[in-house]
Amino acid sequence: MLTHWLLTRLTVLNGEFADAARYSMVALFSTTATRLRLWLLQRSRNTLHFFLLFGVSQGCGSTTTGKLASHGFASMAAMSSFPPQRYHYFLVLDFEATCDKPQIHPQEIIEFPILKLNGRTMEIESTFHMYVQPVVHSQLTPFCTELTGIIQAMVDGQPSLQQVLERVDEWMAKEGLLDPSVKSIFVTCGDWDLKVMLPGQCQYLGLPVADYFKQWINLKKAYSFAMGSWPKNGLLDMNKGLNLQHIGRPHSGIDDCKNIANIMKTLAHRGFIFKQTSKPF
Predict the structure, then answer these.
(1) How far apart are CA 204 and CA 216, in angstroms?
(2) Counting beta carbons within 10 angstroms of the beta carbon of residue 173, is it exposed (0 to 12), middle (13 to 18) or buried (19 or more)?
(3) pLDDT in the model for residue 281
(4) Three-state DSSP class for 127?
């Protein structure tokens, strides 16, 4: 019975640790039952020590630990709860903008969604979602409507970008996100939203860009750190890599935000700790 238990336990060991354990097992089969029991006791202590050390290092949030955890080597604590994140809240954002083939200039934001994700539970606590009326190219192109699902009636009569930005600020204040003691950061699928689109349109319109828009987490980079591969096709590749069902329709801003939140929750559940990827402006 003891030998059967030992063989069963060895099937869950990996790499060099497994090889060493198998080698030791062969040697021990020729020893007395007493020596075998002593060896098992020592191995149990070593295994516990390994898990304790790994659990402590995971709390430090190293990139290496994040990679290991994302592939299933999470500590015992992470198996039952999310690891401590660096932020109280993640603000998931995904713009949709005017577009055509060839591309029109300037592009203008037409959908402005934000999900407030609790950094401890990774659950959505609040939603900001508004459509925005474009002013330079006021008529949406057929290509834009087909891509995003946004029709002309959804943007006609909606607030301007300046008005939407003012409402975002009001929402941030209401949600307690402007409190200096509350750590929050935006999360986007790529750098385009906050590195190119928003600052570009604000510059064109002569509008200031709030400081909270100037740092973010690029989910593509976070995913590549965790999984070891770059998601060339964005959300579709990330969902596939994590065996997740895609939510809603692609290129719907609010649906893309829900997919981002779901991917983040899955990575966090595997022990990944999210870090800022943007460089300070």
Answers:
(1) 22
(2) exposed
(3) 57
(4) strand
In the CATH scheme, what is the code of domain 89-270? 3.30.420.10
pLDDT in tens, 104-151: 999 999 999 999 999 999 999 999 999 999 999 999 999 999 999 999
pLDDT at 255: 98
The overall longest dimension of the chain from CA atoms, in Å, is: 86
pLDDT tens digit sequence for 257-268? 999 999 999 999
Question: 171-180 — which CB contacts under 8 Å span 24+ positions?
Answer: 171/114, 171/126, 171/128, 172/212, 175/116, 175/125, 175/126, 177/89, 177/91, 177/116, 177/212, 178/212
Sign of torsion over alpha carbons 138, 139, 144, 150: positive
| DSSP H helical ranges for 93-205 | 142-148, 152-155, 161-174, 198-205
Question: Using CA atoms, how far apart are residues 35 and 40, in angstroms rounded to an integer?
Answer: 9
Nearest in space to 47 (alpha carbons), one of 2, 7, 12: 12
Active site residues: 96, 251
pLDDT digits (tens, 9 = 90+) for 44-80: 444 333 333 333 333 333 333 343 333 333 333 333 4
CA-to-CA distance for 225 and 279, rounded, in angstroms?
17
Cα–Cα distance for residue pair 38/46, rounded to 1 Å: 12
pTM of the model: 0.72
Domain coordinates in residue numbering, the chain: 89-270
